[in-house]
């Protein structure tokens, strides 16, 4: 029960009776429940508050659940369970294709929906999908997971040495800022710098070869002549 209280569940349906009924079941399981009655309000709530899972109706005023889900998927990885009175396979497929994680057809057993909620939260938390976003630095096609010490470029895992990782993390945490060679050396090697130009330059070259499409014309890791290096903020 204590673990459930960590999760905020957003219920979105223009039928207030359904929202209130589901809220009772979810609250009994220890979840914090948020309520909205149209897709537009759901987008506003997600922008303002931390939401861990959304139960989304399809047919609603202002903005329906399909459009709301598509909008959310542009920026969020929140688990979404679509619910609708329609039972045709085409509607189920549409919901899943536009980014929903699961689908239930009205009328449904509330206990079944609660079980689906638990399953989705377990999947996204235990497998790391939720924690990953909290510990990830994103810049263009670069994604650095600071918890796992792992870099992805365009979705592909890139292997870095410990020193290379240290340089990448320093520059990505401060995207757009130029670091001198001395400062990079002192921060990554944790020791005073004595003519570190060649040492840093070699590591920069190796990183470019791993993250740039064309290392000779880098998009991200750039030199600022006479000053140092930076990762361009994209």
What would CATH call the class of the largest domain?
Alpha Beta
If you compute it from the alpha carbons, what radius of gyration comes out, rounded to the nearest whole angstrom?
23 Å
The percent range for helix content is 40-55%
**Mean pLDDT figure:** 87
CATH topology of the largest domain: Rossmann fold
> Would you tell me the structural class of the helices and strands?
alpha/beta
What proportion strand?
15-25%
Distance from first to last alpha carbon: 42 Å
Instruction: Give the neighbour order of strands across the main sheet.
Output: 2-1-3-4-5
What attributes characterize this protein structure?
21% strand, 9 helices, 4-stranded antiparallel beta sheet, Arc Repressor Mutant, subunit A, alpha/beta, 234 residues, Rossmann fold
Overview of this protein structure:
The chain is an alpha/beta fold and 234 residues long. The protein folds into two domains: 4-133, Response regulator (Rossmann fold); 135-231, Winged helix-like DNA-binding domain superfamily/Winged helix DNA-binding domain (Arc Repressor Mutant, subunit A, Orthogonal Bundle), CATH 1.10.10.10. The protein has helices at residues 16-28, 39-48, 65-73, 89-97, 110-126, 129-134, 162-173, 181-189, 197-211; strands at 8-12, 32-36, 53-57, 80-84, 102-105, 136-139, 142-145, 150-153, 156-158, 179-180, 221-224, 228-231. The longest helix is centred in the middle third of the chain and has 17 residues, at 110-126. A five-stranded parallel sheet has the order 2-1-3-4-5, with helices on both faces. A four-stranded antiparallel sheet has the order 6-7-8-9. The chain is 43% helix and 21% strand.
């Amino acid at each position: 029960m204590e673990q459930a209280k960590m999760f905020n569940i957003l219920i979105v349906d223009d039928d207030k009776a359904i929202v209130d009924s589901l809220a009772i079941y979810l609250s009994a399981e220890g979840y914090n429940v948020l309520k909205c009655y149209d897709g537009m309000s759901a987008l506003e709530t997600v922008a303002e508050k931390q939401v861990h899972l959304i139960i989304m109706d399809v047919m609603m005023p202002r903005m329906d659940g399909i459009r709301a889900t598509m909008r959310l998927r542009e920026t969020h990885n929140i688990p979404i369970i679509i619910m609708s009175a329609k039972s045709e396979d085409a509607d189920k497929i549409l919901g899943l294709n536009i980014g929903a994680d699961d689908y239930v057809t009205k009328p449904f057993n509330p206990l079944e929906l609660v079980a689906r909620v638990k399953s989705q939260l377990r999947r996204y938390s235990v497998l790391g999908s939720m924690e990953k976003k909290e510990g990830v630095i994103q810049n263009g096609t670069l994604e650095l997971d600071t918890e796992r010490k792992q870099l992805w470029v365009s979705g592909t895992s890139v292997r870095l040495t410990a020193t290379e990782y240290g340089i990448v993390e320093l520059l990505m945490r401060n995207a757009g800022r130029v670091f001198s060679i001395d400062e990079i050396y002192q921060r990554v090697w944790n020791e005073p710098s004595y003519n570190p130009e060649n040492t840093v330059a070699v590591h920069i070259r190796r990183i470019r070869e791993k993250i740039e499409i064309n290392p000779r014309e880098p998009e991200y890791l750039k030199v600022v002549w006479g000053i140092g290096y930076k990762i361009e903020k994209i």
